[in-house]
Amino acid sequence: MKILVLGMGNDLYGDDGVGLHAVRLLKDEWADGATPGEPSSSVEFVECLLSGAALLDVIHGHDALVVIDTIMKAEPLTGRISILEAADIRDFPGPSPHYVSVPQVLAIGREIGLKMPRTVVIIAVEAKDLFRLGEGLSEDMHTRLPDILEVAKDVLHGLAAQPAEWVDRLRRIRCRSRSLDGRRLGRQSEV
């Protein structure tokens, strides 16, 4: 199985860069030989500043896609993690008519005959201020980074496991994500 872990965001906007930070750290860990699953599984880690249709060049050719990115919520709690699948996210355009959402990118790729990931998991991380200009994560987000990495590793191990185990593993990951949020933040996750 060919897995792509896509860390998205912008380092210049503080906590919006959490996906990029997470992918850098995961890539370093995997370089030390912590590969998940069967020897036939390969994991590629990519820091990505692209969006919309430009993602086609990055995403095609993989069996599974894991996206780590920030998410906007009405009342965000910095670092709260939600595990989503492609069906859980909106498939309509964003703030610009030139923007194409991840589900639309996947649909376009399939329509034009590209091999697109069959499995898509989004590790959505809440941030209070996605537009704070300045490099580096806030202290709150930096504190949550180990939990984000733990969830990402669980997702990767789940993807590399036998397909029948994947659904059960995703449910356990969602439960653990809730308990991590409850323990560390005193609130339940909205997963």
Write the layout of secondary structure elements.
Elements: E1 2-8, H1 18-31, E2 42-48, H2 56-59, E3 64-71, E4 81-85, H3 102-111, E5 119-126, H4 139-160, H5 163-185
Helix pairs in contact: 1-4, 4-5
SSE string, helices as H and strands as E: EHEHEEHEHH
The percentage of residues in β strands lies in 15-25%
How many helices? 5
The coarse overall form would be globular
Give the distance, in angstroms, between the N- and C-terminal Cα atoms.
Answer: 26 Å
- The figure for the number of domains is 1
The largest β sheet comes out as:
5 strands, mixed
What low-confidence regions span 5 or more consecutive residues with pLDDT below 50?
A: 183-191
Number of strands: 5
Rounded to an integer in angstroms, the radius of gyration calculated over CA atoms is 16 Å
How would you describe what is shown here?
With 191 residues, the chain is an alpha/beta fold. It has one domain (2-185): Rossmann fold, CATH 3.40.50.1450. The protein is 38% helix and 18% strand. The chain has a 5-stranded mixed beta sheet with strand order 2-1-3-5-4. Helix 1 packs across helix 4 (139-160). It is globular. Residues 183-191 have low confidence and may be disordered.
